[in-house]
Amino acid sequence: MNILDNLYWAYKSKNPIQQPEAELDQSGFMTKTAVQLSTADISDTSNSVTLSFAGDILRTHRTSVAKDQVYAEIEDLLFQDDILVANYESPVTTQPLIDEVIGDAGPPIECASEEQFDALTSHNERFIDVLNLANNHILDMGVEGLETTLNVLSDRNIMQIGVNESLAEATAVKTIERKGIKFGFASCAFGTNGHALPEGQKQSINIAKLTSKHQAPDTTLLKTQISNAKAAGCDLVIAIIHWGHEFELFPRRAQQEAAQDLAEFGADLIVCHHPHVPQPIQLYRTQTGDRTVPIAYSLGSLLWGFADRDIASSTIMQIEVQKTEGKAEITNLKATPVRWHAHEIDGNVFQKVARSEG
């Protein structure tokens, strides 16, 4: 980002862009909060799995978080499903915490303490199951922040996607299984805000040119991961992509074309983050006509410090997957708008997430 990009970023943070590009194909955009995607018999839930997907989770110094209070009003949307997935953007660190500064000097630094991490990612001892770490803030606190975050996730049995902890893991498939249904994850980010790991560092991060000004999104890495997941026998392949343009309420046409190409290639569900505002969910019918692939172009920020209505709003997407005669498919999808708000306890201001009032 150059100085003009930074100034435009600051402008959009106060004035989110409301209109889509003229070229954007809006067919298939969801207009209802719930849809049925399959005519299969869903009366037998013994072989069905529910997954919840949430947006960006970021700590802010403007308000505090209290354990078991952040998600108390939306517990049923996240912590009662079989698998919970979110994008985590505040590296856990033992270094002094840095207060986020929003301005035109460049991207803010994000970070959190271990105690804050627990409040941000759990409710009544249930942690989010899968956290995407392939995002532009994962190296904000350097190698220490990355390694501390990985250790904290490991201690809590949280599966992370997007970071390879060894050279051998770079081509491995991250999977999770429930009720005999095997889910595989592809994950990639557009960059790390100019931060890089030192040469020879054992970890690596899934990065590709996904939001370039000069070329179409490079989905080669994502396609490799999708192919590997298929080869590993995954019943459903989920692509988690960190890309796009912040504070814009619609994706760009180039993103849409790339996402639809990934659906054609074999992704069964595409979930995106980074714009910090909710964008539409498209139900994309593949050219063969035999698959409908939901594409959530941005779920928005589940937690951050902005109070602007669009930026404080996000979407929790829940899907039901059923496996019948060896084939898994998405049977139902529900999208619930939520919004974080501040509430006071003993004179201190804390964050809480609740259903949006519209």
UniProtKB/TrEMBL annotation:
InterPro entries referenced in this protein's UniProt entry, alphabetically: Capsule_synth_CapA (IPR019079), CW_Biosynth-Accessory (IPR052169), Metallo-depent_PP-like (IPR029052)
Transmembrane regions: none
Domain Capsule synthesis protein CapA, residue spans: 50-306
Family indicated by similarity: Belongs to the CapA family.
UniProt-recorded name of the protein: Poly-gamma-glutamate synthesis protein (Capsule biosynthesis protein)
High-level lineage: Bacteria, Pseudomonadati, Pseudomonadota, Alphaproteobacteria, Rhodobacterales
